[in-house]
Specification:
With about 425 residues, the protein is of the alpha/beta class. It is built from 17 helices and 15 strands. The strands form 2 sheets. An 8-stranded parallel sheet has the order 1-4-3-2-5-6-7-15, with helices on both faces. The protein has a 7-stranded mixed sheet with strand order 9-8-10-11-14-13-12, sandwiched between helices. The structure holds adenine.
């Protein structure tokens, strides 16, 4: 079996951590047992480009138990948990190509090693596997039935490929499932981003001006949790509707030009480029802390910091101090890469349970139906979304009401008014 991990001897710690996460992933566990019983994915090769975490490990194991051959590389150079990578290889016989801190060339080499396996399904988080296929690996297209995409950024990339007519195979947008973005993006990013900032800095959030840039589901989650920790949360937005929503949720909304003058901590979650740039760095107070929790490391113009600071040092793990004239210092967390995975462990397992249940069932759907789909971006079928919600509720011991016959009739009729 081929693999490239940092240190295979780390496997024991990884195995224990994977088992710990599994306790919080009951929905994926049910799907894994079904897959195993029915050999659902027998004969399917799945190439995955995901954050190599304990939660991803449990997804890989579920796919393998279902009969698939699985190949995994990292979707970010800084998010790999090396002990997990080692355990997947050693304990579970899964080909992993991922090393925490790998350079750009190694990152793309690892993607190519997954593609060398001539996989039938791609499972992306951010779209790098598909974009590599499109740019330089057309040779693997013949074997591919379809792909899935985990995150908002990837779905945006694929929709733009579809619009330009260049998408080469059907993609299921897992991110668009209700049981994904309403929970993973909001409660997952909310908690894990705060976790990453605290682990990196150990600062008190209470009383701080905490600027969140972007009020999508991720931004809403971060704002909610930072507020809960006593921070004074400020929102910046470019979308008028989201800006009204933030205002009505009780947060001051302002331009980054103004927020940059008063913020103590900044977090970007916009999915866009250079949201914090030269003019904002210039406005910032001495000691401002800057982090990103969006998928790519483009939201903060880190090149500016590199080129225009007088000096730089790593002051703590995951914290770089940039010094400017008159002794002003700015602190960049996790090199501007997603802070929840760079400085913490990503979203907790309980929320990844639903995201990865969607991934597993989307892979099954593609394996069965992919040949009948067009080269478009599809939503996860509603029946899968609803099933995952029901299974999650059941695992939490929560029962809900059923509609009565009268209520069903009422909802399907236009005749009854006042
Ligand atoms: N994305 C965010 N958190 C994650 C996690 N724990 N595992 C995999 N992907 C993630």
């Amino acid at each position: 079996m081929l693999y490239d991990v940092k240190d295979i001897s780390l496997y024991e710690k990884g195995k224990l951590r994977i088992e710990w996460a599994r306790r919080e992933m009951p929905v994926l566990e049910i799907i894994k047992n079904e897959f195993k019983k029915n050999n659902t994915l027998k004969g399917c090769k799945i190439g995955c480009c995901l954050h190599v975490t304990t939660e991803t490990a449990n997804l890989m194991i579920a796919l393998k138990e279902g009969g698939a051959e699985v190949f995994l590389c990292a979707s970010n150079p800084l998010s790999t948990q090396d002990d997990v990578a080692a355990s997947l290889v050693k304990n579970y016989g899964i080909s992993v190509f991922a090393i925490r801190g790998e350079d750009r060339d190694t990152y793309y080499d690892h993607l190519n090693r997954v593609l060398d396996a001539k996989v039938n399904i791609t499972m992306d988080d951010g779209g790098d596997l598909v974009s590599t296929i499109m740019k330089e690996r057309n040779d693997v297209l013949d074997e591919i039935i379809g792909g899935t995409e985990e995150t908002t950024t990837g779905v945006i990339r694929f929709k733009s490929m579809e619009k330009e007519g260049v998408l080469k195979y059907p993609i299921i947008a897992v991110n668009d499932a209700m049981t994904k973005h309403l929970f993973d993006n909001r409660y997952g990013t909310g908690q894990s981003t705060i976790d990453g900032i605290i682990r990196a800095t150990n600062i008190l959030l209470s009383g701080k001006n905490f600027v969140v840039s972007g009020y999508g589901w991720c931004g809403k989650g971060i704002a909610m949790r930072a507020k809960g920790m006593g921070a004074k949360v400020i929102i910046t937005e470019t979308d008028a509707i989201k800006a009204i929503e933030a205002t009505m949720d009780g947060f001051p909304v302002m331009k980054m030009e103004d927020a940059s003058k008063i913020g103590d901590i900044f977090v970007t979650v916009t999915g866009n480029i250079h949201v914090i740039r030269q003019e904002h760095f210039n406005n910032m107070k001495d000691g401002a802390i800057i982090a990103n929790s969006g998928h790519f490391n483009v939201e903060i113009d880190t090149n500016y910091l590199e080129k225009h600071s007088l000096s730089k040092r790593v002051i703590r793990e995951s914290v770089e101090e940039y010094e400017f004239k008159e002794g002003k210092k700015l602190y960049l967390l996790g090199e501007g890469r997603l802070i929840n995975l760079a400085a913490a462990e990503g979203h907790p397992a309980s929320v990844m349970d639903m995201s990865f249940a969607n991934q597993a069932l989307a892979a099954e759907y593609l394996f069965k139906e992919g040949k009948n789909l067009e080269n478009k971006v599809y939503s996860v079928p509603e029946i899968i979304d609803k099933r995952i919600a029901s299974l999650k509720l059941k695992s939490m011991g929560i029962s809900i009401d059923n509609l009565t016959k009268e209520q069903e009739d009422y909802l399907s009729s236009w005749k009854i008014g006042t």
